[in-house]
Prior knowledge:
mainly alpha
Amino acid sequence: xxxxxxxxxxxxxxxxxxxxxxxxxxxxxxxxxxxxxxxxxxxxxxxxxxxxxxxxxxxxxxxxxxxxxxxxxxxxxxxxxxxxxxxxxxxxxxxxxxxxxxxxxxxxxxxxxxxx
Length: 116
Ligand code: HEC
């Protein structure tokens, strides 16, 4: 009898755990604190995860101008609701700080032809 009751309690705990992980509406169970900490992180996370995971964003390394272009692209091509000036500033500041062009580490990565 006691054993059976303990088993039920464990099963109950297992059922509650996944539900608790679902509190944010971001896709694929991402949460802002998995990404580079900084001012504007939460704003950026929620602005960009309406349609896709933030990993798609975080795997890029872009300059501010290129981030700006990316946002324009999201608006133009993917029907993202435009950010107002204030939010756009917050998002750009964060992206520029957290995901700058990567240092040319050998092969691959983006290299700015104008940087010298
Ligand atoms: C309204 C929907 C929507 C929103 C909001 C959105 N995106 Fe996207 N984004 C897309 C779609 C659709 C794609 C292309 C499909 C895919 O790769 O998942 C995409 C792809 C991307 C890519 C991959 C490169 C490319 O050009 O395909 C990047 C980088 C990106 N988005 C950045 C952002 C950033 C930064 C934000 C927040 C400022 C954002 N997105 C918000 C819809 C959106």
